[in-house]
Give the backbone structure.
Amino acid sequence: MLATLVLAAADADPMKPQLGLALTALVVFGIAFGALAFFVWPKITKGLDDRNEKILGEIKAAEDARAQAKQALAEYEQSLAEAREQANRTIAEARAEAQRVGDELKAANERELAERMARAKADIEAAKKAAVADIHANATELASAIAGRILQREINAADQARLVEESIRELESAGA
Amino acid sequence: MPSILLAADSPLGHVLDHGHVWSEMQWVGEFGLSIHMVMLFVSAITLLAAMALAAGRIATGPESIGNQRYVTKGRIAQIIEVLVIGLRDQMIEPILGEKNTRRWLPFLLSLFFFILVINLYGLVPLQDLQDVFGLYSHTASGEKLFWLGGTSTANINVTLALAFCAFLAIQIHSFRELGVIGWLDHLTCGLFKSSKIVYPVIPVVFAVELAGVFIKPVALAIRLFANMMGGHILLATVIMLPTLMGLQGGAWLGVTFATGAFAIALTFLELFVAFLQAFVFMFLTAVFLSLMSHEEHEHEDHAAEEVHEELAHAHAH
């Protein structure tokens, strides 16, 4: 019922050809397309492309910067490790040097000590010899004195002279 | 009781093309000025104004504002930008490939936005408002003549003109891409390269394909025209339903409220259809363009080459 109402009320034909309208549509669309293609789309496309490039460029720059920072960090860490190794080596060298110097000093001290001891021993020996010689001399004198006193009455002068001679010879051989 | 919501006597009459107020002027009337023509001009001017505004906003700004120059400001510009990016990256480029997208994007987007603006103007009840406020004149036979309003894309003449543009674009593209020999090869489905047994079939295939060349754009025109006209007839019928059924008084008022609510829901559907049909017209044009290019075959070849290379590598290791 509705369909008949809809169509019955319309005396016009929906498929009616209107050449003027069709040509108008062609011309209007043509002009609109031309204007858009010439003035609008290049601008919009370029704007979008620019933004796209900007974003991609920024991302790439950020990635590059991160890679650079990473590399710098690696380099820094490497140089730090090298410095640490260098320091360790220096310390070890210094320690070895100190050890060596200490050892040398010790050796020198010991040598000097030994020399001094040797010299002291020699001095002591010489002093001992001198003392022994003194003792011999004094003892001979004393002995002859004592012996003279004991023997005064029994020994004549000739004997005495002979005894003294003998004593001196003995003393000399002992002192030699 | 007349329908106060609709400026026409019948649903179909509401959708059809009418004269314009100026049609009564002598030289304009001879030219055959109609409301659909006027709406074409109005739509084109609106389109160009909106697009010029959007282009200024989307384009990279002066360097003085720093990174802000890459930011699009303003709602209309942002909506247009989203549509442009979405259509380009999600719809057109996947089927046309990068090179052909760069070549045909201006045409396809112009087509889309032109149809969209006309469709959207059709949803604004301009004629009906003029009817309510009495801003119209009469022809000698008593027909109402308005200043503005109506859906130009609900007119087969307009959609055929647009389809003719699409047809031209498709043919220019196919001859440029394929050449005459390639075009003939395409229209015979490459049967000349196969065995001689199939030669008798070639005239039949060629006739069908050649018909297809013209049927495709005509189908585009009829699809858009039928969708817009059908939607508007449905909307008008629903709004006029109480009047068409001859209701009176309280019954008329009650049914008017019910149908009015339904009409509001239908208007949202029509809003969707306005976008959808503009998209379908543009998208199918893009598909027909892509059917007449080498692009898809190249992609297949590349894929095959890659597989072969990979296999070669696999064997080498």
